[in-house]
Amino acid sequence: MVYYLVVLLSVLVTSECSNCKLCEEGKCKECEPTYTMFGDECIKGESVLDRCVEYESTKFGCKKCVEGFTPSVNGLCLQCTHVFGVDCLECEQTYSTQCSKCKQGTVLTREGACIFCSKYFTYCEECDGQTMRCLKCKNGKSPATGFC
């Protein structure tokens, strides 16, 4: 058994097709449940990497996280709300710099941020975050130019 240590985190790496579902010529091709491919071997994450679905094969760290989490630059899975703010419900499971789904009452901009329409548009009840235009005004007026 070989141990890799990265910043306060250790992951057990086993050799000789241990924890493999499919092994060919001494190399693992498919892992048992709860294990993930890391090069030719199957690894099981401990503690902070428990939310990791797919590990990087060329460097240590997580490449894809469970839903609601995204890999940070150091390869750890962080909750979307901690990275993109409390209004972000979902973010990409692979490394991302954007939120992909916002809480009700906020809209997603094309830059991947969650905003309140009223913060950017006076008297706006509903807006489009992609075009940054008001769609419905609170005062009953028509947002002909995208503003109320």
UniProtKB/TrEMBL annotation:
Specify whether Signal is a keyword of the entry.
yes
Signal sequence range: 1-17
Tell me which UniProt keywords the record has, alphabetically.
Signal
In terms of superkingdom, the source organism counts as Eukaryota
- What is the protein named? Uncharacterized protein
Native organism is Entamoeba invadens IP1
